[in-house]
Amino acid sequence: MDPYLEAHWLDVHGSLIHLAKAALQPQLGDDLVARSEERLVVEDPVGLSRVIGPDVRVVEIGLGADSVAVGGVAVAEPLVFNLESAPVVQRFIEILDLTTGGRVITVIEFLSPSNKLPGDGRDQYKRKQQECRHGGVNLVEIDLTRSGRRELLAHAWVQSRKYETTYQASVWRANHPGRCELYPMKLRDRLPAIRIPLRPADADAALDIQSLVDSVYSSSRYDRTTNYRQPCDPPLTDEDAAWALSLS
Fold first, then answer.
1. Residue closest to 120 by CA, chosen among 58, 175, 57, 41
2. CB within 8 A of 130, min separation 6: which ones?
3. Which of 105, 84, 75, 95 is nearest to 199 (CA)?
4. What's the rounded Cα separation, in Å, for the pair 183 and 205?
5. Which of 116, 128, 232, 239 holds its CA 20 to 30 A away from the CA of 137?
6. What is the C-alpha to C-alpha distance for residues 32 and 28, in angstroms, rounded to an integer?
């Protein structure tokens, strides 16, 4: 995994969703389909570092006179700015069973930093986890970001914290609700291909995460815009920073 991709996460995330859906579709047969869906998250404007999506506004500012008289003293007129909540669209993949009228059987999430930091994004994501568990929907969580506190469904099993790595994926199967699968992913290792559960009678699909990331990197030409000599955000250890520099 290239840790510098987190700086372009909005673009990376959208590409991962598109490529993952395309990779899964041929494995689903005739009566299952993969579709991308979205939810709208309102970011707290005070936490400006959490806003990862572009936000364009046209603002009319009435400047008026340069100064006005207040109590016989000429005082300057300030510029007034209003902080507004910035909506961010978060996309995910649903696999639908056409034999049951389009019932959702599996949800696949590529987590964003906003899912892991305090605010509406994390609150909505935690609700989504519980909805999947209560509704008997398989949940696949893939976390390729380092910002924020990771709260995958696998972490409901406390012992999973012993296997914390730079990146992780969690797979919860509705037909085995008392257990969860965890895929540890170290920064410098090849990202794995993971199993995607479908209906209980179906064979698992496979999703090669490394191939997806490689395709995103190549198609978006990040090699032309990434400066590996600049500090990474979040910061890397000295050893990992040297390794990242070798990627250039």
1. 41
2. none
3. 105
4. 16
5. 116
6. 5
Q: What are the tokens at 176?
A: 């085995």
DSSP, collapsed to helix, strand or coil, labels residue 38 as: strand
CA geometry: angle at 209 spanning 158 and 226, to 5°? 105
The 3-state DSSP class for residue 68 equals: strand
pLDDT of residue 193: 97
Contact by Cβ (8 Å): 228, 3: no
What single letter denotes the amino acid at residue 189? D
Q: Is the confidence at residue 83, as pLDDT, over 80? A: no
For 136-188, how does the pLDDT look when each residue is reduced to its tens digit (9 = 90+)?
999 999 999 999 999 899 998 988 889 999 999 999 999 999 999 999 999 99
Segment 1-11 shows an average pLDDT of 92
Structure tokens at 69: 């008289």
Longest dimension (CA), the chain: 84
How many angstroms separate the CA atoms of 80 and 138, rounded?
Answer: 49
Q: Is residue 148 within 8 Å of 115, Cβ to Cβ?
A: yes
Cα 36 from Cα 17, distance rounded (Å): 7
> How far is residue 162's CA from residue 81's CA, in Å, rounded to a whole number?
47
Question: Rounded to an integer, what distance in angstroms lies between the CA atom of residue 29 and that of residue 91?
Answer: 24
